[in-house]
Design a protein that fits this description.
mainly alpha; Four Helix Bundle (Hemerythrin (Met), subunit A); 2 domains; 5 helices
């Protein structure tokens, strides 16, 4: 073979090899970039999902706190005195009690399904609410019948004791809610910079 032909063949093969190697590396680089982009998108979606869940958790905690405030007000010693002095009928009080039970039901859902650490105090508080209701209903019935009911009457004393227990559980629950909210916020703060 002649040298010019051999040189042309070697040059052509070198050019083809160069194009093949260049294409191979471009495809490899593109594949690596695509994998990186997919991983980045997956990480971003995961981070956004965690943020959404954290925001929902904080919203649930705020709702639980509002419900506790409503319950706290209803079973406070001040409310007990106001209702008693207003000479509310025991049947009227039953309706009032049932309406506050709706708040407790919502709180029980949050504690039972989302924040199990609150469940025990919520259930104990609900038990004391039932004790309060039964005794205070008796106070209202006796008062309605013209009985001499004082702060020393056993049913009044028991309603007072239950209200104090409810308040104790309320403080524990609100403290736990604040701790949980703080934990959710700290987790959010600590994870946010690494996801950027």
């Amino acid at each position: 073979m002649e040298t010019p032909i051999l040189t042309s063949i070697v040059a052509a093969l070198s050019a083809l090899l160069g194009v093949a190697l260049s294409s191979f590396f471009q495809l490899r680089t593109q594949r690596i970039n695509q994998q990186f982009q997919l991983a980045l998108e997956a990480s971003k979606r995961e981070s956004e999902g965690r943020e959404r869940e954290r925001a929902l958790a904080l919203e649930r905690l705020a709702k639980a706190h509002r419900q506790l405030s409503v319950i706290d007000r209803e079973f406070s010693l001040t409310s007990l005195d106001i209702i008693w002095r207003a000479e509310m009928m025991d049947s009227e009080y039953d309706q009032r009690y049932l309406s506050i039970c709706h708040e407790v039901d919502e709180l029980r859902v949050i504690a039972g399904l989302h924040e199990a650490s609150l469940n025990e105090d919520v259930e104990k508080m609900f038990g004391q609410m039932n004790i309060f209701w039964g005794n205070f209903k008796t106070v209202l019935r006796l008062t309605g019948l013209g009985g001499n009911v004082t702060h020393m009457t056993p049913c009044f004393k028991e309603a007072h004791r239950a209200a104090t227990e409810i308040e104790s559980h309320m403080h524990s629950l609100k403290s736990n809610l604040a701790d949980l909210a703080r934990r959710y916020r700290v987790d959010s703060f600590q994870k946010t910079p690494s996801s950027n």
